[in-house]
Design brief:
Layout lengths: L1 E7 L1 H13 L3 E11 L4 E8 L1 H13 L2 H4 L1 E6 L6 H9 L10 H11 L4 H20 L2 H10 L3 H12 L3 H32 L23 H18 L7 H7 L2 H14 L2 H31 L14
Antiparallel strand pairs: 1-3, 1-4, 2-3
Pfam families: DUF389
Organism: Amycolatopsis heterodermiae
Keywords: Membrane, Transmembrane, Transmembrane helix
């Protein structure tokens, strides 16, 4: 179930209540008259089945509540109510399979913005990956995979292409196009510092002796298959209620580790491995986006076609 809150100008409250009251997926409908201060109006609340959310939100947007008032959705972990159970049973489809298009657009838009936090996580992930390469530690490489925030912009690219939201494509492209080079430059500085100080020992840059992390630069068909499977799983997780699966997606792809390995290989003078790592990075990026887009197309064809999606908020 999702909890919906809608701030309504007083002249829009009655139509909004009619929409919610008439939909089988609605329960616990409440209206607070005149409590909204900015913008002024009434507050309408309801619990709605996830599979009904897209249709209800679209109908409320037709009333322009997203412009003259406000609409928010919040996931409910527990709802002990016969009315809520009945709403979920009457709403068509299954909650785990439902796609809330506006939620998807908002989520990918937020996670694909170029900001200090995104750059910090990406840089730390690349530094972790370089440490994993220098110490021949697969565990550290896995840690870098988990820390890396790059799946957000990659998912945004897929969403933007499929929904023809070029503003989202540009935003995600900027985040990746600036984020990865900047993180790799910082990692380059760190790798050079390690080499000068010899803090990891004389064998750190003998990459041919590091067998535990060879999978990072070994690009090939298996790399593409894994990237596509990860992209498909990631988009399924983002368009359903199974978001916990994203952790497995992060661990399965070698985007950030490939970037870190390329930098270390360049400092070590292993140009063949450097180029292979860059190839691995590109294969993973393209594979994730392509598979995510295919999954999104399939899911869109199986649900109501998204219309009237609100543009991204600046920030």
């Amino acid at each position: 179930m999702l909890h919906l809150r809608a701030v309504c100008p007083q002249d829009k409250t009655a139509p909004a209540l009619d929409i919610l009251r008439d939909h089988a997926g609605t329960a616990h409908l409440v209206v607070h008259r005149g409590v909204a201060v900015s913008p002024e109006g009434d507050l309408v609340e309801a619990d709605i089945a996830r599979e009904a959310a897209d249709e209800i939100v679209a109908a409320l947007c037709v009333l322009e509540l997203d412009r003259t008032g406000g609409i928010t959705l919040e996931a409910l972990d527990t709802a002990l109510s016969d009315a809520a159970d009945a709403a979920e049973e009457k709403a068509p489809g299954e909650g785990a399979d439902a796609v809330v298009w506006q939620e998807l657009l908002s989520r990918t838009g937020e996670e694909s913005r170029l900001n200090v936090t995104f750059l910090a996580f990406l840089t730390i992930a690349c530094l972790l990956a370089s440490v994993g390469v220098l110490t021949d530690s697969a565990v550290t490489i896995v840690g870098a995979m988990v820390v890396g925030p790059e799946f957000g912009p990659l998912a945004a690219l897929a969403v933007g292409v499929v929904l023809r939201r070029w503003d989202l494509v540009r935003q995600a492209g900027v985040a990746l196009g600036i984020g990865f080079p900047l993180a790799m430059v910082v990692t380059l500085g760190g790798a050079l510092l390690v080499r000068v100080t010899d803090v990891f020992g004389a064998q750190a840059f003998e990459l041919k002796q590091h067998n535990e992390v060879d999978f990072v630069f070994s690009v090939g068909v298996p790399s593409l298959v894994v990237a596509m499977l990860a992209g498909a799983a990631g988009m399924l997780a983002m368009t359903s209620a199974k978001s916990a699966a994203l952790v497995g997606v992060f661990i399965s792809v070698t985007t950030v580790p490939a970037a870190g390995y390329a930098v270390v290989a360049a400092v070590a003078g292993e140009w063949s491995r450097c180029l292979q790592s860059i190839g691995q990075l590109l294969v993973n990026l393209l594979g994730i986006v392509a598979a995510a887009a295919v999954v999104l197309i399939v899911r869109r064809n199986g649900h109501r076609s998204p219309k009237g999606l609100r543009p991204l908020s600046p920030g």
